[in-house]
Structure formats: C-alpha cells, structure tokens
Amino acid sequence: MGIFWRRLLEQLPKAGKAQSKMPTRVLAQLGLGSGDELLGLWHAQRQLKTNARLQLAVFESEAIDATWLQRHWEDAGILATERTPAAAGQEPHPWSPLAEQFIRACPARIIGCQRLSFDDGRFIVDLHFGPLLASLSTLAVQDTGLIHEWFIHPQCLDSNRHEKLLWQMARVSRDDARLWHAAGPASSPATGLADLAGLARKTGFALVDIAQVSQALAPDAPEPTPMPASDPGQDTIALQERRALRHQTRTHQGFCPLPTAGPSHSPIAIIGGGLASAHLALSLAERGQPLTLFCQDAALAQGASGNKQGAIYPLLTPENGPLSRFFQQAFLFSRRRLQQLLDAGYPIAHDFCGVLQTGHDDRSQARLDKIIQGQDWPAEIATAVTATEANAIAKVSLDKAGFFYPLGGWVSPAQYTRAALAQAARLARVEQRLNTEIQRLEYKDAAWYLHSHRHTFGPFARVILAGGAQLTRLEQTKSLQISGFRGQVSHIPGRPKLSKLATVLCANGYLTPLDDNFHCMGASYVKDAPNLDYSPAEQLENLHKMQHSYGNKPWVEEMDIRGHAARVGVRMVTRDHFPMMGCAPDVEAILAAYGQQEHTNERRHDSQHQWQTRPAPIHTGLYVLGGLGSRGLSSGPLAAECLAAQLCGEIPPLDYPSLALLNPNRMWMRKLLKGKAL
C-alpha cells in the first residue's frame, strides 16, 4: 500500500509557497481495516509535499473509537506501549506522530460522519460510521461526482459486493474514477473477484488490482509503470445511468437547495464578527479562498460570542434522533478545531474538564433519566454517574446523580473567535473591515453590492450573512423564522469553597469553574428584550437557579452577586434548535408560488409533489449562517465547515437529511411538503 499511495500522490502538483489554488483530491475507502492505509496516505502526502488538499472518506459499518485505533496501532508496532516499549536507541515508527495526532482527535463510536482535519486542512479524514448503503445514498454530492479513487478493503469484498452499493459509489464518483482492490487468491475466491469485476463494468468503474500495480511500481522494477487510467472503453450506458442517478437524487432534494461552488477564488463577503463568521473564514481560508469580513463593531466578538466562558458539550435526546446526532458530530468537530488552534500557539482560555448535568426538580430529573436510559451512549460521549461519583468529579458536594460528558468543558468564546480569524489570515488573504455596518444589500448584474452608511462595497459573487442578532435586519432575511433572546451571564468572584469546583455544572442554569478570579453563572432567557442594559432582576434570577438546583450547600452560599458584574448578549434561536445554514430563501417567491397554487385549486398531492421535486426559490449567491442559540460553541464550527465545503465544491461532513434540517427555508417547506397552509 505504501508504494501505491506514494506513486498516486506523485501525480499531483508539488506544493508552492502560497496556499491558494490548491486542488482537492478526494479518495474513498470501503472499510477502515486497522487504519494503516490512512496513516500511509498521510505520511506519503507529507513526504511528497504535494500542492493538493487530500480528503479521505472512509465508510465503515461498525463504529470505532480512539481506544480501538490505539490498540490496533500498538499491536502493529506503530505506537509504543508499556507492554512493548521501544528498544533502546531504536527509531520510532515514522507513522507514530501521525497516529498520536489521530488518537488526540478523539474519534468516537457514533453513527454519522466525523470530520478530522490536520495540517491546516491539507489532510482531511471523514469517518462515516453506520450502514454502508445508507451512508453512501445520503452523501451530499451535487451535479458531478467528486471522488477520484476508491479502495475496497479486503474484508469488504464478500460482505458488500452488491449492485446497489456500487451504484451509490458511482453516483458520488467522477466518471473517470478507478476502483482499487487488494484481494489476492488467499483472501477472496476467484468467483468473488469475477462478480466484482462484472459489477464494476456495469456501474462504469475501471477495476484495478492494487497488488499487481504495487509490484510494477516497486523500487527494483525495471521501469516505472504509469498508473493505469480509466478504461477508455467504459460503458457509455453506465455513465449515463450515473448521471441519471445524480439527477434523480437532486430532483428529490429540490426542496433543500444546496450551496454550490462559484468561479475559482471569486470574491466572497462575510457579514458578522462573531464565532460563526470567524470559523467560516477559517474554513474558507484552509481552501485558499480570499474573503472580506465586515463587522459593525470596533473589535470582534462583541455580541453573544463575547462571553468570558461558555460550555461546550453535546445536546442529547432520549431517542438519539437527528438533533442529537447532529450535536454529537458538531461538538466533536468544535473540540478538534479548538485543539488545532491551541496546538498552533493561540492563547485561548479553556479547560477540557468535562460537563456534569444533573436534574433540578422531579420533572427535569425524569427527563435526564430518560436520556440516560434511552441509549447505550458511548463512554466518550456521556456516561451516567452516581451521586458519589458526581461529588468526586465536581470536587464540591452535589449529592445528586447525573450525566457526565468527559470530553466537554469550557472555552472563552471571544478568544476562540479571534484565534480562528487570526489563523484564517495566516492561510489566505482575509480583509477585515471593522466599524462597518452593512445596512442594505443590492443584487445587480449577477453580483452583490453591500451598502453601509457612507460606502458601497463590491461586487461580490457570494455573500454570507453570519451577523448573529443582525441577521434579520436586512430586507432579504427579515422574514427568517428566528428569534432573538437576551441572555445575562453573571460573573461571581471566587471563594474558598466555591473555587474548588472542577467541572462545568448544568442544571437549572450553568456554572463554570474559576477563571481569572471569576465564575460564570447563568443565563437569563428573555425574548425580544427592549434593551441590553444590566438587569438586577436577571442577576438575582441566575443566583436563584443555582440555589434551586443544589440547595443550601456551603459552596452555593458563597455565591456573591453584589458586585453587579455581568455581561448581556443576544442569542438567535430557532424553534427546532437546529442552526440555520445554507442558501438564503426567497420568502416572497415562496409565498407567491404558494398563493398561485391556492388560487388554481391544485390537488394537494400534486402540490406536495411539486414542492418536493422543484428547486425552492433562493436569493442567488446569498447564504445564511446563524441561529446558533445557546450552544453555538458546539454547533457553529461544523456548520461553518459544511458551508465552506459546499461553496468550494467539496463533499460536506453532513448528509442530505441533516442539511435539510439546517436549511434556512425549512419552516416553510415542512408545511408545504405536508400540504399544510402557510
């Protein structure tokens, strides 16, 4: 495999000084195996210093975690262990540093896609865990396939050799994609390979035996043999079937228009100066995309992202439905993103101290018990703890059982925001325009122009509205079904007993461990508040929440709000708790089309079918990233990464159903798809 990956990457352009104009090479692997292939690919990319971003999509039916990978790499001698220490003077395995980085990224045993990004986004691994056919059939790929090469792991040759699976692989692949296998006579019967070869021809793949190619590419081979190209005699009918399958998928997803790639490095504008904007800038910069960021304030993170501390942990539900699965994926991505910025040297106050959730009354305890007992949660996501264990984790007396999120913790949202944008500026051309409030958008001559009080900026091919509380102030997005909620976070000074708190507490409100001599406690939740002034009533409310949650514990009695220290911000919240990410809906056009159907008395079924299959109206080149609510630290970075991937013509780390749930038009479309009145 090492020779194969190396020769494959030798075909790619070498790295230059600039990060711009980096092509993305998408490889896919059916079956994870022991994980050796992905380490070999990553190592080869580093050695050859190719000027290309590599995206490896791994599809595995069984979910695994970091512990599983660590054990396999220890057994393979890639990682040293206490059981098998490295011999004195012996060089460590060349893949060892990569394996250690991969383990630190904490892949978890959850269903869905987990994106792991390394080397400033030059090497991306998407781990798709779950039924293979379901994972492939919901992969969000636009009009053309994106995967260049497939490698079928030997263990998958027998169990997954069926036609539906290969057709879905074909749907998401380029027409010239090759299908590599590594099955020799000892590992798979000849009849099995013959079946695979027949299916490959039927679905339009060129099938290549990796063992034969590796022999031809060996160092002692007389002459380097070119990598085999796709068969020029591929069945044109198969390629037509592929395109028809893509068209069918796109038609069935018409109600959920996806962002599409524009001209290479066409100008992009981001409106907003908070966490969502900064992480979108970073994800775009990793792809070499220049951009301009407009912020109405004199500095970044002056809105909801300006809190001193914020909890980062997943949102779970008893049934572990789409909302719960999305937040697990998003939380893990955000944690990895934070670790990357820390490794790059950015000072970000944080503590991966875990988050401990307890009930605060009979009703909330029953709800929490239902979540705990509803699923066999992976230990790295959450684990039930007794009252005694909770006391030991918190280092203060709670005397309550609860649910512990071991990978969670707290982070400074403002520092996290500034670090993300600073890293973006290191990777690409990022122009910041502070003190610039965009009051009006104008679309003319197929481009967007941004109007402030004094200036006009543009033209921009694409504009992303990520301005938090400002999201609904523009004409194009004023009707978005999203609401602003005022939140006051109290800052209480450390005290001897209170300062022993060693984890984030969540009950009726939340409380963070000490940082810079203060704890954060909160937060209030007031819809459409008339102002953002300090509120003594909300300060007292925050205190009462903690007193209600944990009674008259000695450490609770030390809480002091007399200093009136607090911070107020506005969180934009959706009714279903999903963020908004995607194309900005043209609400007027939606309502006009609905009104026209009502007047023509179309049958309900026909109306539903039209809304299901035709593209929903959007504002061309205008996108929304917002509605992060009170869990933006967990959801924002992944939503930003998904939008950036689609804007740059890549496969996003969320499937079609998840993207539909994030789509800004979803509130209207849910009714229309059910034949209900708007």
From TrEMBL:
Domain FAD dependent oxidoreductase: 268-645
InterPro entries: FAD-dep_OxRdtase (IPR006076), FAD/NAD-bd_sf (IPR036188), SAM-dependent_MTases_sf (IPR029063), tRNA_MAMT_biosynth_bifunc_MnmC (IPR023032), tRNA_S-uridine_synth_MnmC_C (IPR017610)
Protein's name in the database: tRNA 5-methylaminomethyl-2-thiouridine biosynthesis bifunctional protein MnmC
Gene Ontology MF terms in the entry: flavin adenine dinucleotide binding; oxidoreductase activity, acting on the CH-NH group of donors; tRNA (5-methylaminomethyl-2-thiouridylate)(34)-methyltransferase activity
PANTHER family given in the database record: SARCOSINE DEHYDROGENASE-RELATED, TRNA 5-METHYLAMINOMETHYL-2-THIOURIDINE BIOSYNTHESIS BIFUNCTIONAL PROTEIN MNMC
Highest rank taxon of the organism: Bacteria
Region of interest (FAD-dependent cmnm(5)s(2)U34 oxidoreductase), ranges: 271-678
tRNA (mnm(5)s(2)U34)-methyltransferase: annotated segments: 1-250
Compartments in which it is found: Cytoplasm
Keyword Transmembrane: no
E.C. number(s) listed in UniProt: 2.1.1.61, 1.5.-.-
Alphabetical UniProt keywords: Cytoplasm, FAD, Flavoprotein, Methyltransferase, Multifunctional enzyme, Oxidoreductase, S-adenosyl-L-methionine, Transferase, tRNA processing
Primary location group: cytoplasm
Alphabetized NCBIfam families for the sequence: MnmC_Cterm (TIGR03197)
GO BP annotation list: methylation; tRNA wobble uridine modification
Catalytic reactions on record: 5-aminomethyl-2-thiouridine(34) in tRNA + S-adenosyl-L-methionine = 5-methylaminomethyl-2-thiouridine(34) in tRNA + S-adenosyl-L-homocysteine + H(+)
Functional note: Catalyzes the last two steps in the biosynthesis of 5-methylaminomethyl-2-thiouridine (mnm(5)s(2)U) at the wobble position (U34) in tRNA. Catalyzes the FAD-dependent demodification of cmnm(5)s(2)U34 to nm(5)s(2)U34, followed by the transfer of a methyl group from S-adenosyl-L-methionine to nm(5)s(2)U34, to form mnm(5)s(2)U34.
Family designation: In the N-terminal section; belongs to the methyltransferase superfamily. tRNA (mnm(5)s(2)U34)-methyltransferase family.
Pfam families: DAO
GO cellular component: cytoplasm
Cofactors named for this entry: FAD
